[in-house]
Amino acid sequence: MQDIIAAVDTLVVADTLNAVVNAIPVDQQVEFYKELLASQKSTYDLFVFILLGILTVFVGGTLIYNIKTAKKDVKKHTEKILNKQKEIIIKKIRKDFEDELNSMKGDSARMFANMSKGEGTAWDLVTTISWWGDAVMRYSLCSDRGNMLNISVDALLEDIQKANNVKKEFKRNYLKIHDDYEDLKTNIDQIPDLLYDKKKEIKAWLSEIENAVPPDPADIEVAPPGAEPED
Q1: pLDDT digits over 65-118, tens only?
Q2: How many domains does the chain have?
Q3: Residue 141 falls within a domain, yes or no?
Q4: 29: three-class secondary structure by DSSP
C-alpha cells in the first residue's frame, strides 16, 4: 500500500512539474531548467555541507574521547609501573640497610670476641664463644658475607674445641650466664651450607659439652671480677 502511495505521489509531482513547464513560454523554459538545476545543486551542496559538519563533529568527538581514554590508560599504566618500581626500590633500600646493620653488629661482636680472649680460661671461653656465635649469625644474614664470616666460623670452631678441654667447667659457667644453649644453637644454624662441614663439626663439639656432667661446686673455677652475672 505504501509503495502505491509513493508511486502516486511521484506521478503527482511529475504531472505538476510538467504542467508548470508547459505553462512557461518555450524561450523561457531553458532558464527555468537552469534555475531548477541551480536550486538542486544548492540543495545538494547544503546536504553535503551538513553531512560533512556532522562527520566533523563525530570524528572530533571520537578523537577527543580517544585522547582522554589514552591519557587515562597511560596514566594508569605509568602509576602501575611506578608503584611496582617503588616497592622494588623500598625493598632494596630496606635490604641494604639491614645488610649494613648486620655487618656493623657482626664487626662489633667480632671485636668484643677478640677483646675477651684473656688467658683462655673456661670463663674467657664462655664470653668469646657467645660473641663469636653472635658474629657468625650477623655475618650469615648479610648478602655479601665476605671473609668475615669464614674468620668468625673458624674462630668459633677453635674456641669450642678449647671449651671441650674444660667442658665440665665451661658448661657450669656457661649456664650461670645463659638459661640454655638455644641462642647459641640458633646462631650456629644461620651458618650457610657452603660451610656445612665446619657447621656440623661445631654442632658435634657443642653436643659433647651439653652431655658433659658438671663438676662439684667445689671444683668450679672462681669467676673473675665482673664475669659473675648479677642476680
Answers
A1: 667 776 677 667 777 776 777 778 888 788 888 888 888 999 999 999 999 888
A2: 1
A3: yes
A4: helix
Radius of gyration, CA atoms only, the chain: 49
Query: CB of 136 within 8 A of CB of 184?
Result: no
In a domain, 205, yes or no: yes
Instruction: Please check whether residue 74 lies inside any domain of the structure.
Output: no
Residue 66, in any domain of the structure: no
The residue with cell 659439652 is: 209
**What's the CA gap between 150 and 145, in Å, rounded?**
9
- Alpha helices, DSSP H only, in the chain? 2-23, 26-115, 122-140, 146-165, 167-177, 182-189, 196-210
Q: Show Cβ contacts of residue 210 under 8 Å, excluding neighbours closer than 6 positions.
A: 171, 181
**pTM attached to this predicted model:** 0.57
CA distances from 104 to 3, 71, 134, 148 (A): 98, 48, 12, 11
Which residue range forms the structural domain that includes residue 113? 99-219
